[in-house]
Amino acid sequence: MLFLKKLFGPADPTRSWPKVPMTTTPVLDLSRPAFGSLIFGDRLESAEFLGRPNKAVIHPRTVDLTYPGFKLEFEDGEFVFVNIYFKPYPDRTSTTELRLTNGTVITPASTSDEMIARFGDSYDDEQWVRYGVLQYYFGKMVFEAVFDDDRTTLEQVNAYLN
Questions:
Q1: Which of 1, 68, 73, 101 is exposed most, by the fewest CB atoms within 10 A?
Q2: Which pLDDT score, from 0 to 100, does residue 2 have?
Q3: How confident is the model at residue 131 (pLDDT cuts 50, 70, 90)?
Q4: pLDDT in the model for residue 76
Q5: In this predicted model, what pLDDT tens digit does every residue of 61-84 receive, in sequence order?
Q6: Three-state secondary structure call for residue 72
Q7: Pairwise CA distance, residues 67 & 132, whole Å
Q8: How many Cβ atoms from other residues are within 10 Å of residue 119's Cβ?
Q9: Average pLDDT rounded to a whole number, residues 140-155
Q10: What pTM did the predictor assign?
Q11: Which helix (H) or strand (E) holds 134?
Q12: What is the rounded distance in angstroms from the CA atom of residue 47 to the CA atom of residue 35?
């Protein structure tokens, strides 16, 4: 068995999870911090309510689970990062909206001016100037809005623990 594990890598821990139709992107709670009912720091098994992912990438210390419109990252078995995609790419789909528990709704049409009006000035102006990233801290949670090079089109939102 060790030979097969070396040849094919570790087994997919989500292989027995049921297929669940994804109708909406889970709500992001910046204060808790959580994505749907999955709290940052939860074990990988806690994500089973989302169903079997479209793609699971398993590395020795990390597992990435890709769903329609978002990707979850687990490190050493714990939920540590979520990417929510607003711009589609050939290898992933995008979402039409992300709801936050504070009532904010983020869509692909959300602008940097709207983000600044809602959340205030970005924490790290260097990130904005160099890369088009508005970065905010909510307790131990980091929230990033990533825009394209012209700073007008929202590409993705990231959330992770500081």
A1: 1
A2: 47
A3: confident
A4: 96
A5: 999 999 999 999 999 999 999 999
A6: strand
A7: 25
A8: 19
A9: 91
A10: 0.89
A11: strand 133-138
A12: 10
The SS3 assignment for 160 reads strand
Residue 35 · residue 24 · CB < 8 Å: no
* Identity of the amino acid at 32: R
Find the length of the chain. Answer: 162
Helix (H) / strand (E) element for 65: namely strand 62-67
Residue 81 corresponds to which tokens in the numbers above? Answer: 């990062």
Q: Is 82 helix (H, G, I), strand (E, B) or coil?
A: strand
Neighbours of 121 (CB within 10 A): 9
**Token representation of residue 74:** 């687990």
Q: How far apart are CA 122 and CA 130, in angstroms?
A: 13
Cβ neighbours of 157 (radius 10 Å) = 24
